[in-house]
Structures are given as C-alpha cells and as structure tokens.
Amino acid sequence: MFRNLLIADSGKGHVEEMVRMLRELPAFRQARLNLLHVVPEQAGEDFQEHWQKASGIVADAIQRLGLDPTEVNAIIRQGDTKQTVLKVADELDADLILMGSRGLGRLQSILANSSSQYVFQLSTRPMLLVRDDLYVRHVNRVMVTLDGTGVGDDALRIACELVREIPGGTLTGVHISRQDIQPSRGGKSPADLVIDKAVQRARTLGVELKGIHGTGDVGRGVCAMANETKADLLVIASQDRRPLVARSLVDIDRLLGSSVSDYIRVHAPAPVLLVREPESGR
Q: What is the mean pLDDT of residues 236-244?
C-alpha cells in the first residue's frame, strides 16, 4: 500500500521506533525508505562541518534501524527544514511523510517555528506524526475517525488496508457529533447512518469495523475514545483550511482557532496518521 516513505529524521525522538514497528506490517515491508536530514541555512562557514555531522546522523540512524545502506535513499539537504520536507516529498512523490513532534500547542508551535506543525498543516500527502512524549507500541488496535466525507472515506480505506494485514488486528471507527440529533422515522440518526455506511465499506475491504458514537467537542471526544480503546494508531481525516494567500506562511488564524486535527495532533494518546484532502479535490 505504501511504496515510498519519507522519514524526516532529526536524530532524536521516537521516529525510529515507529519505523521499526511499521516495517513489521505487511503494508510497509516493500516500501522504499527515504531518510532525510536537513542542514540548517545558518550553517554558513561551518557548512562542511554540519554536512559531515548530518552524514554521521543519517549513517547512525540506518545502522540503528538494522537496514542495508544500499536499500535506503539517504538525502541530505541544506535549507529551512519545514519547507525542505515538503519540497523533497513532492520530488519523491512520497505517499507518506513520517515526522517526530514535540506536541506543542498552536501558539507554541508558531513561537517555536515548529517544522512538524508546518508540514502537518500544509502537506496534501498522508502524514504520520509521532510525539516525543508517546510510548510507541506495536500496531494492533487502529482507530479511524468517521465523518462521511470523501477524505474521510480515504482515511477509512487506509485504516482498513493496514488492519487487514495485521494478524489479530482490530479497527474501531469513531464518529463524534457536536450535539445529539434525534433519529428519523426509520429509527436511524445521522450518526447511525455514517457508522452503518462505514461498517459496510469496511466489510467490502475485508475488515470488521466496530463503530462508536459520541457527542460534544470533536477533538476531545476522539482523543478520549482513542484512550478508552487503547488505540495504537489513530487515523484521522482533515479538511481544515490551509493558507490561501501565502503558502510560505503558517495559517496563523487556523493555528489560533479551533482546528480539530491540530487538537488531536497535540493530545492524542497514540501516533496520528493524517489523511488530508488533496488540492485537486478542492
């Protein structure tokens, strides 16, 4: 399913642990691994020293992961990390970007110039975020958000394709309504219809999905359900608006607003696989 994985490695955090876990899953065993390290633009006269250090970081990462260096595409670039990750992802046509995250809140992300938050907001490609404060577990219990939209269907498909190849793997779908809506004459509420549709879709993909419905704040509800079900991986769909004026700037009003996906990024009890609506679909 995933053929071209871009790993943006900073030499710290739990990204490498996540790579080890993913390589145990059939969906990732044949994936091409591209390991990217970015030398900062400020290197200046010390560029050669920074470059040698970066080469050492990449080589050490390959060794720790137990990989054959000839089977890994090691990439070292100089530039701004966040923009370089997006650029390289486009060059490689990566179908998944894997990055670590400090789990900073929205305002903190702006002030700290967070690379993972920037890529999270701007990338149109699926992205897997692994927070530094999480314990990375073997992926068996997967949770996916259900919203009944096209991008939500993409998230459900990816979740099913992952779980289908995990021996004993389980899939839970969660739909959070902001308020209760009474069932229609047929006895089905809008939430029931969304879940029923997802259950049927999952079955066509060879997976049994357990649907859960909650009400209230969507971001908090999803995180609470993920914690309750002890999810090892959370797959979410996002249609959050991205910058329309300048792609070189972080969408500050969205960061300071009520972005559901951003709340989940910071508070989810498991790594988050974000499926974003492609630009062509807008």
A: 63
Which residue, 138, 132, 82, 111, is CA-closest to 265? 132
Task: Please state, in angstroms and rounded to a whole number, the distance separating the CA atoms of residues 20 and 4.
Answer: 16
Query: By C-alpha distance, which of 239, 233, 236, 238 is closest to 162?
Result: 233
Comparing 247 with 99, which gets the higher pLDDT? 99
pLDDT at 186: 66
- For 112-167, give the DSSP string: TT-HHHHHHHH--S-EEEEETTSPP--S-EEEEE--SSHHHHHHHHHHHHHHHTST
User: When comparing pLDDT for 148 and 74, which is higher?
Assistant: 74
Domains of the chain and any CATH numbers: 4-131 (3.40.50.620), 141-281 (3.40.50.620)
- Range from 9-13, 154-158, 190-194 carrying the lowest mean pLDDT: 9-13
- pLDDT, position 254: 46
- Report the DSSP beta bridge partners of residue 37: 76
The Cα–Cα gap between 112 and 105 comes to 10
Helices (H), the chain: 15-23, 47-64, 81-92, 106-111, 115-122, 150-164, 190-204, 218-228, 252-255, 260-267
- What are the structure tokens assigned to 214, written together? 């909650």
* Closest among 2, 5, 278 to 151, alpha carbons compared: 278
Residue 239: is it exposed, middle or buried by C-beta count within 10 angstroms (0-12/13-18/19+)?
middle
3-state SS, residue 59: helix
62 in Cβ contact with 54 (< 8 Å) = no
Supply the DSSP symbol for 27: G
User: Which residues are CB-contacts of 43 (< 8 A; sequence separation ≥ 6)?
Assistant: 49, 50, 51, 78
